[in-house]
Write a structure and sequence with these properties.
215 residues; alpha/beta; Rossmann fold; 8-stranded mixed beta sheet; two-stranded antiparallel ribbon; 12 strands
């Protein structure tokens, strides 16, 4: 597991702006900060891929370059995951893409289940799957999305789970259900969830802040 916010870097400015109630009023900036977080995590994640030497022809000769060889599928949980998806895709612009619709179905007693309703993905067998969702609250959405993808489209050779913020509970749940060939990337981890399973102190509802309130 990698927690990027533990190291001092410009990354923490973007996390801080995501949390800041004043900055949150600008939805375009909120989306851009999620995108920038995706870009930074994508860069750090790229260091864990497999590489091979290739000869690249330049106007003046041949350059030996070490380039990634993994075939990547970038998966995202709709709708809040779209800005981070774009950020990672900015760096892995040759990646194939997968999209999963998952939401909280609330019950009268105050509990909820995670429902997966839609899935679009290329085959995953032998590929590297990057699965991103900005908020790792209970961890159920991430785990169920991974199960839905792999049960339908095959098992990737490695999975990178990516989140901007996580709770201790969500991180523990995800790590408990992760396969052995997996890595978890989190921007920061907060200590608790409130009664509605929102991360505290967290930042609120990432989907609403990025795209407006829903019914």
């Amino acid at each position: 597991m990698h927690i990027l916010g533990e190291r001092n870097s410009i990354f923490n400015v973007f996390i801080a702006e995501l949390r800041n109630v004043s900055v949150q009023q600008d939805s375009m900036r909120f989306r851009r900060n999620l995108e920038r977080i995706g870009e930074i995590i994508g860069y750090e994640l790229s260091k864990k891929l497999n590489y091979a030497n290739r000869e690249i022809e330049t106007p003046l000769g041949i350059a030996d370059m070490s380039l990634p060889t993994d075939e990547i599928v970038l998966g995202t949980i709709l709708r809040a995951g779209l800005p981070m998806h774009q950020g990672i895709l900015n760096y892995f612009d040759g990646a194939q893409n997968a999209f999963i619709s998952a939401y909280r179905k609330h019950h009268k007693d105050g509990t909820f289940d995670i429902q997966v309703e839609y899935l679009s993905s290329p085959p995953l067998e032998g590929k590297v799957l990057i699965l991103c969702d900005p908020m790792l609250a209970t961890g159920q959405s991430m785990v169920l999305a991974w199960k839905a993808l792999t049960e339908t489209m095959g098992k990737p050779k490695h999975t990178h789970f990516v989140a901007a913020l996580g709770s201790e509970e969500g991180v523990s749940h995800t790590r408990l259900h992760m396969p052995e060939n997996a890595t978890l990337w989190v921007g920061a981890i907060d200590p608790e969830l409130n009664a509605k399973s929102y991360i505290i102190p967290g930042l609120g509802d990432a989907g609403d802040l990025a795209y407006g309130p829903k019914m």
